[in-house]
């Protein structure tokens, strides 16, 4: 079942001065059509309480809501899918858990992981990191623009298709070169959330991508 996959994935994050709910409201008002709720600091009960409020906002704006990692919560609120950050996770089991109707995204650092996710039913793959990121630190090599070009070419050579999303340290000045590689889209977190005006920052990314 082919799913709608936005070209601009906006991610919330744990911030001391702006709640996930506030971040979602700002993003939706700026035109976000895809929000990934990425909370690392709350219990399931706390997340669900917040998710019901976030889902209501997303519903008002017609925005797709994805949750990071917590697949067991997908059916407990109005959530359209899950993004799995564990690159070695068995997506077939997660698909059984969430069902065919929900969107299933996964993270990848290597071509081998991309292939594995395609075989196991991912609807899209977040690849990277593009560059330095403090949002989700890891030891993987930075892809840069060239890395995405190479992976797109390898997929084309093997006649494989899946939406690839560039993630990890993407800044506004990187957008045009990244989109020119043929990737499907870009995921942004801190470059929007930690800017002086998150709403304006979202609109700036959106203008370059759509």
Automatic annotation (TrEMBL):
Q: Can you tell me which residues bind 4-amino-2-methyl-5-(diphosphooxymethyl)pyrimidine?
A: 107, 136
Enzymatic class:
transferase
Q: Which cofactor does it need?
A: Mg(2+)
Q: Where does Mg(2+) bind?
A: 88
Q: Which residues bind 2-[(2R,5Z)-2-carboxy-4-methylthiazol-5(2H)-ylidene]ethyl phosphate?
A: 133-135, 169
Out of the domains of life, which is the source?
Bacteria
Question: One GO biological process from the UniProt record?
Answer: thiamine biosynthetic process
Which GO cellular component does the record give, naming just one?
Answer: cytoplasm
Catalytic reactions of this protein:
2-(2-carboxy-4-methylthiazol-5-yl)ethyl phosphate + 4-amino-2-methyl-5-(diphosphooxymethyl)pyrimidine + 2 H(+) = thiamine phosphate + CO2 + diphosphate; 4-methyl-5-(2-phosphooxyethyl)-thiazole + 4-amino-2-methyl-5-(diphosphooxymethyl)pyrimidine + H(+) = thiamine phosphate + diphosphate; 2-[(2R,5Z)-2-carboxy-4-methylthiazol-5(2H)-ylidene]ethyl phosphate + 4-amino-2-methyl-5-(diphosphooxymethyl)pyrimidine + 2 H(+) = thiamine phosphate + CO2 + diphosphate
Recorded metabolic or biological pathway in which this protein acts: Cofactor biosynthesis; thiamine diphosphate biosynthesis; thiamine phosphate from 4-amino-2-methyl-5-diphosphomethylpyrimidine and 4-methyl-5-(2-phosphoethyl)-thiazole: step 1/1
User: Could you say which EC number(s) this protein's record lists?
Assistant: 2.5.1.3
Q: What does this protein do?
A: Condenses 4-methyl-5-(beta-hydroxyethyl)thiazole monophosphate (THZ-P) and 2-methyl-4-amino-5-hydroxymethyl pyrimidine pyrophosphate (HMP-PP) to form thiamine monophosphate (TMP).
- Report the protein name in the record: Thiamine-phosphate synthase
Q: What is the lineage of its organism?
A: Bacteria, Pseudomonadati, Bacteroidota, Sphingobacteriia, Sphingobacteriales
């Amino acid at each position: 079942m082919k799913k709608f996959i936005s070209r601009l994935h906006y991610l919330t994050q744990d911030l001391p001065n702006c709640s996930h709910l506030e971040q979602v409201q700002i993003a939706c008002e700026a035109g976000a059509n895809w929000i990934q709720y990425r909370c690392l600091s709350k219990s399931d009960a706390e997340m669900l309480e917040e998710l019901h409020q976030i889902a209501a906002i997303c519903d008002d704006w017609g925005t797709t809501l994805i949750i990071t990692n917590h697949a067991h919560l997908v059916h407990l609120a109005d959530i359209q899918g899950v993004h799995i950050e564990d690159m070695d996770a068995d997506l077939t089991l997660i698909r059984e858990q969430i069902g065919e109707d929900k969107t299933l995204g996964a993270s990848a650092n290597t071509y081998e992981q991309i292939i594995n996710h395609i075989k196991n039913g991912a609807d899209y793959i977040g690849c990277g990191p593009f560059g330095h990121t403090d949002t989700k630190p890891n030891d993987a090599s930075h892809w840069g623009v060239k890395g995405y070009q190479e992976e797109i070419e390898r997929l084309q050579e093997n006649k494989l298709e899946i939406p690839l999303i560039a993630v990890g340290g993407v800044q506004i000045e990187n957008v045009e070169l990244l989109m020119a590689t043929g990737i499907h889209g870009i995921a942004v977190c801190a470059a929007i959330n930690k800017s002086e005006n998150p709403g304006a920052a979202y609109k700036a990314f959106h203008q370059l991508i759509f």
